[in-house]
From TrEMBL:
<dbReference type="Pfam" id="PF17900">
    <property type="entry name" value="Peptidase_M1_N"/>
</dbReference>
<dbReference type="InterPro" id="IPR042097">
    <property type="entry name" value="Aminopeptidase_N-like_N_sf"/>
</dbReference>
<keyword id="KW-0645">Protease</keyword>
<keyword id="KW-0031">Aminopeptidase</keyword>
<feature type="domain" description="Aminopeptidase N-like N-terminal">
    <location>
        <begin position="109"/>
        <end position="190"/>
    </location>
</feature>
<dbReference type="InterPro" id="IPR024601">
    <property type="entry name" value="Peptidase_M1_pepN_C"/>
</dbReference>
<protein>
    <recommendedName>
        <fullName>Aminopeptidase N</fullName>
        <ecNumber>3.4.11.2</ecNumber>
    </recommendedName>
</protein>
<dbReference type="GO" id="GO:0008237">
    <property type="term" value="F:metallopeptidase activity"/>
</dbReference>
<dbReference type="InterPro" id="IPR035414">
    <property type="entry name" value="Peptidase_M1_pepN_Ig-like"/>
</dbReference>
<dbReference type="GO" id="GO:0008270">
    <property type="term" value="F:zinc ion binding"/>
</dbReference>
<keyword id="KW-0862">Zinc</keyword>
<dbReference type="InterPro" id="IPR045357">
    <property type="entry name" value="Aminopeptidase_N-like_N"/>
</dbReference>
<dbReference type="Pfam" id="PF17432">
    <property type="entry name" value="DUF3458_C"/>
</dbReference>
<dbReference type="Pfam" id="PF11940">
    <property type="entry name" value="DUF3458"/>
</dbReference>
<feature type="domain" description="Peptidase M1 alanyl aminopeptidase C-terminal">
    <location>
        <begin position="568"/>
        <end position="896"/>
    </location>
</feature>
<dbReference type="InterPro" id="IPR027268">
    <property type="entry name" value="Peptidase_M4/M1_CTD_sf"/>
</dbReference>
<feature type="domain" description="Peptidase M1 alanyl aminopeptidase Ig-like fold">
    <location>
        <begin position="460"/>
        <end position="563"/>
    </location>
</feature>
Amino acid sequence: MRTEQGPLIRRDAYQPLAFGVETVDLDFILDPQATLVTNRMRCVRNPDAAAGPIVLFGEGLVLVSVTLDGAAPTAGQVRETGSGLEIDVDADEVLVEVVTRINPSANLTLSGLYQSRGGYFTQCEAEGFRSITYFPDRPDVMARYTVRLEADAATCPVLLSNGNLLETGALPNGRHFARWEDPFLKPSYLFALVAADLKALERKVDTMSGREVLLQVWVEERDLDRTAHAMDSLVHSLRWDEDVFGLELDLDRFMIVAVSDFNMGAMENKGLNIFNTKYVLANPDTGTDLDFENVESVVAHEYFHNWTGNRVTCRDWFQLTLKEGLTVFRDQQFTADMMARASDSPAAAESARAVTRIANVRGLRSGQFPEDAGPMAHPIRPDAYQEINNFYTATVYQKGAEVIRMIHTLLGREGFRNGMDLYFSYHDGQAVTCDDFVGCMAEANGADLDLFMRWYSQAGTPHLKAEGVYDAASRTYALTLTQHTAPTAGQADKLPLHIPVAIGLIGPDGADLPLQLEGEVRDGNTTRVLQLRSESQTWRFTGIDAEPVPSVLRGFSAPVILDIVEDDARLAFRMAHDSDPFNRWDASQRYMERVVLGLAAAHAAGKPMEVPQAFGLAFRALLVNETLDPAFLAETLALPSETYLLERMQPADPAPLRAALIHLMREIGHAMQADFLSRYLDLEVEGEYRYHPADAGKRALRGLCLRYLSAWGGPTAIDLALKQFEHATDMTERYGALAALVQSDAPQRFDALAAFHERYKDDALVLDKWFQLQAGAWRWSDAAPATLDQVRALMDNPAFSLSNPNKVYALLGGYFRANAAEFHRPDGAGYAFWAEQVIALNKTNPQVASRMARSLEGWRKFTPAIQAGIRAAFERVSAEEGLSPDVAEIVGKALA
């Protein structure tokens, strides 16, 4: 493991290597402690690069031998460097053979080749391949691979790699082999191998051109009954990519493999996707509706990478959003389409799309907006980094997807498809840049996107101010939009961006008004996209008979913070009448935010917390409205996330915020207990569980009703939660009841937790839910045990392991990231625990350690007293010897 501070790598310093690689022939003799890797590379001089040696990167390798065209190198021809090997050659083409030895069983970083539950697995993105063999391990070096795997037949009966299977056979001493060939060019980060004891769910399907292909989902035998949904999701993804983008599976087979120990969610290796079990395994008894949704989304994401990431890949890691932002957008569109297609009516389909969009924006606001305001703020295409693993961020993924969505909004569905077609026609089989992608979009549509490119280079979340003036005499409404982006870490000067702003105007009767700009002929549209290209711009609408209520940023048409003056009455009006489902939801969130922060301010000042009566009336009007889709209501009546609210507090103070949230939930639950109970009873889904938008929406709203009732804490509510927990026939209902009990002051929650553990003690994924629920538990009274004490005790549970990322994310991540009031204890014990765990994780898995370290990166937004405790924790970690570049970069930027 590297322990030195990583050098600063800059995007503008990119240079192609002097030598590329045409073909790679890999031979693995797999052994737990001494795997032998023979790598034969046909290296070819790059005519577009400056002269230089063959550069091969390598980390933690035992070099056995090197030959050049079958002969030993001359003295000094091969040099070891701090990053690998350099080889001087005069010829334009040479066959380089490198033999290395590695120890998979000792590899706890879960990067490169490692062991999990007796099997061998790889993770090569971003730079894991260099810990397998010496290689020009960069995304712009693309080659064709053949792979031979040899292993013990008893422990590893399944041998998989990228592409198509060529040959299998038995060997002496109980061993066997398999040979694979990938006919497509790929960079080394997309290489994969799996050697393990697995079973497959298989399905054969015909592609749009009539080719029969084999789909496989490989898991441990005990998990086969949890693979059907992943397979269905794969088939749906294949069909959707054919229908929407005309993109066909290009291999004879496509494989998904589930592994328990995995740093990421999944990896899109060509034809052999390796997944965290969390995003493959699901059945009604072990998976919630959200689990089923996540499996479908992640399977789709990795499958879509086959074209947006694999067939066309990144020139360098600064272009990461080229594949990730684009593919997140594609999987979001897929999810919305799947939800809509499964809906029972056009209205339900519209609501399903809205709920999907709301979920996307919730994640953006609670995850990416804080990142944009912190020390790790960076554009979606960064200008520099020390450790690339730290830039697999919400900015690159989620904000990157929003940037792609804006292009889609500006060009329209047909224009976007034309741009995609041109992109593939120009760049199939190439490693390219974000400029290449946007250039294709512009060329295909005759559009000017030069100003739009600032989204790729400018960090921070823009504030969009909207001000409207109605003139009754001229029957006009003037809307002025102004943009401003605050300075971010390392980037003080901000320029205006090209922002698409979808708007509507609502009349006094609640109906949308036709929009006619001055000098235009009315076309009857009630929503239109305004393009803000400067710091400020005004649009004047004509033919307006009464002062309208503006509905700005419909569908969340741009990733900005909207600043608009709206009193309680106007927010309640939009909650009741806005025809745009997203903005209707957003109005409720704005109203809730105002109420919660007002309660928190009162609590901090020692004043009584009083919930405004008007808010209660608006909330109840939605709750009892049976014409609205339950899934939409579940989103609309849920309080904004604590993470998002802390971003809105100035300064952030978790203790009064938590007090305000508890008070509001109790008050609402108590005041509307009869309404919650009525809706809860009416929403029961009868029959066997099915993953379906209509059923999932009912269960979501039912679960929300139960949480409000349990927060109130009346005996009827607790009995209701206990009854649901004890008699539930699916995980959504069972876990929802457990969550309602845990997020209350009910003493019965401890028995319920014990019963849940006893039922699922042998199921690692379900126990992750159990760990996470307790780590994120609120203390509803001073008599409740301290959450930190519970987290420490849970670390001693036999099911917990600091070496398993899922366990760390569930328990430690659940405490650090999802339990602000308990983590930010006044005595600083939470920070001391954080430092202790970051230091421990740094020694074995720097990637996971850096993700835990980032839990505190936004520390400067808190009160001075809190900042002092966090600074001390950062300084403790910073002083640790042997700090990995992953953690050192996070801590260094936080303290800078």
